[in-house]
Amino acid sequence: MRVLITEDQIKHRVQELGALISADYANRPLTVLGVLTGSIILLADLIRATTVPLRVALISASSYGGTRTTPGELHINSSLVPDLTDRHILVLDDIFDTGRTMQGLLQTLQGHSPASLRTAVLLWKSDRTEVSFAPDYFGFRIPDEFVVGYGLDYDDEYRQLPFIGVLEEADKRGQNPD
Ligand code: IMP
Ligand code: MG
Q1: Mutation to probe ligand 1, out of 60, 62, 95, 130 (largest number of atoms < 8 A from CB)
Q2: So which residues are the catalytic ones?
Q3: Is residue 171 part of a domain?
Q4: What is the DSSP string of 124-146?
Q5: Which structural domain, as residue segments, surrounds residue 34?
Q6: pLDDT band at residue 63 using 50, 70 and 90 as cut-offs
Q7: Of 103, 113, 116, 124, which is most buried by a Cβ count within 10 Å?
Q8: Please, are residues 119 and 135 in contact by the beta-carbon 8 Å criterion?
Q9: Nearest CA to ligand 1 atom 3
Q10: For ligand 1, atom 9, which residue shows the shortest CA distance?
Q11: 85: in domain
């Protein structure tokens, strides 16, 4: 697998993002809302790179019926989401690709009466964006290639890699091919 972003580059950038977010949210009641499942590694590292009080919550978003690169209908499960009224919400996902997932999440979350809603992602595939907004915080802009690692999966595998790699044909057989 070809490494696109190294473990050290990610570490350094996550520290920078943590500092930025800490400055922006000082003295505001912040809830970092991680999108399952891809955001879990970034969530764990990013909250430890912040220096402001915050709460952590989780929401799930997945698209069914599409292929791996063209998502189908978006399903959002907010059953784990606590009361967000008057809280400043930072929605955290692994990647902003077409932006449709984030768009759907923002629409749903508006109904929870937050004080503000912003978005943060590790990766932004800016050439593929199909919505009229961009992520408020992003780690790296990347070209239109299918990537895995640091939470991002292919067929639910490879999330545990500490770097971001570009998936190659041989990797599509999985991590334990027989
Ligand atoms: P969007 O709705 O098109 O922005 O896609 C967001 C979702 O698609 C992400 O949460 C990922 O689950 C998935 N996705 C998009 N591009 C990639 C990729 O290169 N690798 C792994 N997952 C991806
Ligand atoms: Mg995902």
Answers
A1: 95
A2: 97
A3: no
A4: E-GGG--SS---SEEEEE--S--
A5: 8-142
A6: confident
A7: 124
A8: yes
A9: 98
A10: 95
A11: yes
* Rounded to 5°, angle at Cα 129 from 127 and 134: 110
Pocket of ligand 1 contains residue 95 by CB under 6 Å? yes
Residue with tokens 């290639």: 145
Could you tell me which residues come within 8 angstroms of residue 7 by beta carbon, excluding any fewer than 6 positions away?
Answer: 162, 163
Ligand 1 site, residue 93, Cβ cutoff 6 A: yes
* Predicted model pTM: 0.94
Q: Is residue 107 part of a domain?
A: yes
How many distinct structural domains can be found in the chain? 1
Give the pLDDT score at 162: 98
> Phi first, then psi: what are they for 82, rounded to 5°?
-80, -175
User: Mean pLDDT throughout 48-62?
Assistant: 97
In a domain, 177, yes or no: no
